[in-house]
Amino acid sequence: MIPTHPAPAAAFPALAPLCRSIATVSISGTLAEKLAAISAAGFTGVEIFENDLLYFEGSPADVRRMAADHGLAIVLYQPFRDFEGVSAARLARNVERVKRKFDVMHELGTDRLLVCSSVAPDAIDDDALAIDQLGELAKAAAEAGVVTCYEALAWGRNVSTYRHAWKLVDAVNSPNLTLALDSFHTLSLDDTPDAIASIPGHRIGFVQIADAPKMQMDVLEWSRHYRCFPGQGDFALADFTAQVVKSGYQGPLSLEIFNDGFRGAPTAATAADGHRSLLLLEALTHEELAKDNNATAGAPLYTPPAAPAHAQWQFLEFAVDAAARERVASLLDKLHFRRAGQHRSKDVTLYRHGSAAIVLNAEPDSFADAFFQRHGLSLCACALRVDDARLALERAAGFGYQPFSGRVGPNERVVSAVQAPDGSLNYFVNEEPGKPTLFEADFVLTDVDGPTEVGPIAGIDHVSLSLPAGSFDSWVLFLKSVFGLQASAAVLVPDPYGLVRSRALFSADRGLRVVLNASVDQHTAAAQTVRAYHGTGLNHVAFSTGDIFRAVTEFEAAGVPLLRVPANYYDDLEARFAMSADFLDALRQHNLLYDRDEKGGEFLHAYTETLDQRFFIELVERRGGYDGYGAPNAAVRLAAQARQRARAAREQTE
Amino acid sequence: MIPTHPAPAAAFPALAPLCRSIATVSISGTLAEKLAAISAAGFTGVEIFENDLLYFEGSPADVRRMAADHGLAIVLYQPFRDFEGVSAARLARNVERVKRKFDVMHELGTDRLLVCSSVAPDAIDDDALAIDQLGELAKAAAEAGVVTCYEALAWGRNVSTYRHAWKLVDAVNSPNLTLALDSFHTLSLDDTPDAIASIPGHRIGFVQIADAPKMQMDVLEWSRHYRCFPGQGDFALADFTAQVVKSGYQGPLSLEIFNDGFRGAPTAATAADGHRSLLLLEALTHEELAKDNNATAGAPLYTPPAAPAHAQWQFLEFAVDAAARERVASLLDKLHFRRAGQHRSKDVTLYRHGSAAIVLNAEPDSFADAFFQRHGLSLCACALRVDDARLALERAAGFGYQPFSGRVGPNERVVSAVQAPDGSLNYFVNEEPGKPTLFEADFVLTDVDGPTEVGPIAGIDHVSLSLPAGSFDSWVLFLKSVFGLQASAAVLVPDPYGLVRSRALFSADRGLRVVLNASVDQHTAAAQTVRAYHGTGLNHVAFSTGDIFRAVTEFEAAGVPLLRVPANYYDDLEARFAMSADFLDALRQHNLLYDRDEKGGEFLHAYTETLDQRFFIELVERRGGYDGYGAPNAAVRLAAQARQRARAAREQTE
């Protein structure tokens, strides 16, 4: 069924020059604000969505000038609806309608019009008729010197797949009628993109890219409200885009994102995320192409330095003042961390237990100080140990994240860092054989033997952040693009005062695990945490242990306040899982939560009470390859924490 | 297929005593907070949702005592899942599982357990097997002295309709296995409730009530996140409940609402809305029953005084100080309102044009003054002319809205009032023949001839309010219950900075029209309005006119600043509607927006610029029975207003 025209040669031609574009409907603001932000983000092309033109107080020629002033090419005008499958009378009227749009396009200075497959309930289901009428469209387009791009909407009345649309376009056989592709319309229907590669690239007039979370809902509603930037959703977009590249298509890759959140989000930041999401997609597409073909060299896809193959937590750095340092140090002491070093030139202290390292930074007039002034006691930096710190920084900077340099004392290490979406720092650290480690270079170590096992904590299992709702997808993109992390599907967790959206990101070897939480509602613990921090904040650090019973016994004896779990939880656990009475008793006695996966992997975990109404510590033991985070227990923990908060509030007022 | 057992007599028995109940999952908070709020709202029964028990730090007996202290009966424990359609081995385990739940129920002091139809992918599709196994359930329940209530989930693997569930329950034929009904599971599938009336009422063990907006999505997701209180959604619940009453069912009517918004909303206010939504449902059910049967007298359904048959705007009252009064008075003057009276004892002025009346209240130490202190220039009261003000107040008070009385001077009228969800007042006014009108009684009228036609404004067409998102559904319930208004379906309108949810409510004779708007995002005009007002606020008043061309010509000449509409809008209008070039020119010349309905009804409207960044005036002319609000033009208006705001901001900084 696929093409009657010759396919391109096996070594597909280059996508050159690659134009990265975005539809104006994807971001918030007035048309003037949108064009400025799109240009600033690095795009070179823009699709003008008709409504943006209608609302604009100026002529199409004014829009053309405005775009040109920003260095943007208007690569498409869209959409034109319900052209084909109509009566003869209606066709005549449609031709008149489309001619007016061609006039607008001439004024706008664009030669491409998106024409969507008909959705009219009375659209006639007759391919021969559709071919005739699309032929009329092509004729009118030829007279006007423009190109129409025919797109199968996933909810099109008669034409809903790109294969069907291509059949019609191919039959018309005119350079003025091309095929338009949109990843959403293909992937939302679980359609496969494999036939795209065999469509001649020059017959594809336009390619739109959108991601989306997998959802069980009406495809039109899904498309209109829940699309997101590539990498933020669940679609296999690199595979889709690889097929497009293989076809020989040389036009723009353009984001067309209908997203309720983006409509209300800051214009410039959203545009910036859009641009880096396209870069990430290109990088992944390049990897995809490299798998089955070594002829990717010619494709001008963005190819950043590779993500770190092995990344792990080097240390977590907290911004503190003297009082906050005392509170945190006291908790660390009870968790049997030892004070391992003092910074050579700054008021910075290092604590260690197993491979876990915590840095408390009270240096005046520093980045940490500024962070403390703004956010209070907070996680101001994470250091990640990687194979090549310079490459990691280059990769991050290539995706548009801001590199950062702080003051460095004599003989201290210069550490590369990049700013995360909340302005906190991510350091990239590599250690070379025979050279002093970062800790040796920068700290006077009080425990020169290095990390010996002094207690039950092995290291950092994961870090959990509470985010403002609007920054959730920005963080997903940051962690995916900078560190090459993968993302689990998002889940909704019930807090007693509302829902919390949660998503885990992790590296291939699980050396790095980050859990992101954003509250849907105003009154949850997660929302309160965000308010307490005046922005994104650490929700908790989970330390891994090989023996959680030993860990909680030791720590409780040392005075660590563990979160109490209700007895009813254990009654229900017994009904859900087969387990010995002794084991159940041991869990109950130590306030341990429990989960088991389908393969029998087990997860035992406990929580401390919350410090400063901000963050708490989790202790986790993974058995038998358990790879989750105890999601079924999250609601139990949140309810227990809500009780703790209520108790604390009562004690304060008494 | 429906019952083998005798149906109840035509004159169905009374629902006595009626127990109004709600499931704990329907509102936010800890279990203790939930029970307190449920009791305070007026409920006498409560369903304990299992998770609320699991998260509770105390025994089931503690929950029983807590509920009893609040005067609440625990009418149900829920849910129990995946009992039937299983292997023999699994059945034995399920019987053990359910026996443990019976133990919990004894401790809780409840005799009813909700058992949901199986959703397990491997559930065996065999009615005979299901009947056998549900028989085992009934036997175990009989031994424990409890009643199980079997419910068909809309997404049940094999049993998804109440008809199917009833067939199984009927076949088991045990008093310990009854049918549970849930309006959502029936109405979400577009199933009809008519067969319910012929099921013997004593075989129905429990009835859950939930409303929901009509949505095109997976029914499970829809159920878990979008249910709402009766009257807030789109289901025909009075019809459903009438069938339940006809069956002779005498148990509780219980709200089971899974709603993401309610999970994050204030506990007490949500519970109060839940209770009044049940009262409204009962009232509507009573009306429904009265239609086809005069034997409703015995049913203990709540029957409030009838809603006003004819209600119309008497006046809108603004809280002002001297400066704000001058600004509003200046605008009213340009709109050719005349100053028609001065209040006899207060610093309150009356303005009139046609039947539209505006009252500006600057009285110190009054309700209006308090409102001004809190909200600034704002709509502090609406007066509605009704047939019987006393009855209207009784109705409102019966639904739990707070009556209000202000100071009254000598010979002035005592006017009944009730507080709306935002604390503003709704006065009920009736005028009796031969007696002084309210205006005559309270004002020294400067224009004693009364309302003569002095300009193009006929009266108030509608009033539009900007609401905090969380109060949207509370307002729907307020307007439906107090005034008996009907609601259109909600629509989403794009503002340049986010989406706005909008819904119109109106009386049968269209004497009263109110449009509610709530912003989904933080940066829209609607969200800014809510912030400017520190709460709910007037967005605009639409005045009706019989000649909008005359109106805008006169008002522009008088210096009213009309909102400018972009030329591109008219180009598009021409493409969408057939209309004469002259007519189109006239629209363009006067910045008039235009809409046409399917029957040819037409809507012409214009807007003033925004006063104090708060509210504006709309002028509307309805032709040929047009019944909408020009929704297709809302986005054009919002974009034009955004430009106006940006211009104003620029001028301020220059």
Explain what you see:
2 copies of one chain form a homodimer. Chain A is an alpha/beta fold. Chain A has 3 domains: 20-298, Divalent-metal-dependent TIM barrel enzymes (TIM Barrel, Alpha-Beta Barrel), CATH 3.20.20.150; 304-405 and 413-455, 2,3-Dihydroxybiphenyl 1,2-Dioxygenase, domain 1; 458-654, 2,3-Dihydroxybiphenyl 1,2-Dioxygenase, domain 1 (Roll), CATH 3.10.180. Chain A contains 21 helices and 26 strands. Chain A has a 9-stranded mixed sheet. In chain A, strands 18, 19, 20, 21, 22, 23, 24, 25 and 26 form a 9-stranded mixed sheet that branches. In chain A, strands 1-2-3-4-5-6-7-8 form an 8-stranded parallel beta barrel, surrounded by 7 helices. In chain A, strand 24 and strand 25 (602-607) form a beta hairpin. In chain A, helix 9 packs across helix 11 and helix 11 packs parallel to helix 16 (472-483). The longest helix of chain A is centred in the middle third of the chain and has 26 residues, at 267-292. Chain A is elongated. The N and C termini of chain A lie far apart (78 Å). At the A-B interface, helix 2, helix 4, helix 10, helix 19 and helix 21 of A face helix 2, helix 4, helix 10, helix 19 and helix 21 of B.
